[in-house]
Design brief:
Elements: E1 16-19, H1 29-33, H2 48-53, H3 83-92, E2 99-105, E3 117-124, E4 131-137, E5 145-150, E6 157-163, H4 171-188
Parallel strand pairs: 1-2
Antiparallel strand pairs: 2-6, 3-4, 4-5, 5-6
The protein binds a DNA duplex (16 and 16 nucleotides) through helix 3 and strand 3.
Biased composition (Polar residues): 64-74
Protein name: WRKY domain-containing protein
Pfam families: WRKY
Length: 190
DNA sequence: CGGTTTTGACCAGCGC
DNA sequence: GCGCTGGTCAAAACCG
């Protein structure tokens, strides 16, 4: 079976899933806080701030507008072990972690979401021309992961799946907000 | 030199 | 039980 389109929805029980189309190749947080003109399936009242200020995929699935193409399936939990035990545990215990998947129309596989990621694997997947890449948050003690895969059906679309909760602030977000916070602190003195 | 990417090997889950 | 598949590890290569 050649060219069989991968399912629009990721195979796992994603917490959230929606499709969007970005004009640029990157997804800088400031622009996300004020989303550009997306020819998207995202509701205009989509809670971007909650999505991005909180850990990715975090929060109440009910807060996601029904008009967004969303799958909600709560799966949250923990996994903390060392070495192979951890590896084993992460596979045996059905990973109960928040997941969040979305698609972007971009030529760039790497989505700049403000966090720093280290690639730890790449794998050819069945029924897909393009490999799936596996990334992990570089922040120590933060075991958030993400998968990136380009659709073979529509090569301009990249599916990004986040898994887990960041336990630290977003560097770029803090970077961009710090002048504003300083200004607010200054003004609050009056 | 330290951090990141690449890539083959390994392992567990799942379907048959 | 076996083979397939997806996810991860880890050593080597690469890069700034």
């Amino acid at each position: 079976m050649e060219g069989e389109a991968p399912p629009l929805v990721p195979p796992h029980n994603s917490s959230y899933f929606f499709t969007t189309s970005l004009p640029s190749t990157s997804l800088h947080l400031p622009s996300l806080l004020h989303p550009p003109q997306l020819e998207s399936q995202i509701a205009p009242d989509f809670d971007w701030v909650a999505l991005l200020s909180g850990p990715i995929g975090y929060g109440d699935p009910n807060s996601v507008p029904a008009s967004a193409s969303v799958i909600t399936s709560e799966n949250r939990g923990e996994e903390e072990k060392g070495g192979k035990e951890k590896r084993k545990a992460s596979r045996t215990k059905k990973a109960i972690r928040p997941k969040f998947a979305f698609q972007t129309r971009t030529t760039n596989d790497i989505l700049d979401d403000g966090y720093r990621w280290r690639k730890y694997g790449q794998k050819a997947v069945k029924n897909s021309t393009y490999p799936r890449s596996y990334y992990r948050c570089t922040q120590h003690m933060c075991n958030v992961k993400k998968q990136v895969q380009r659709l073979s059906k529509d090569t301009s679309i990249v599916t990004t799946t986040y898994e887990g909760i960041h336990n630290h602030p977003c560097e770029k977000l803090m970077e961009s907000l710090s002048p504003l916070l300083k200004q607010m602190q200054f003004l609050s003195r009056f």
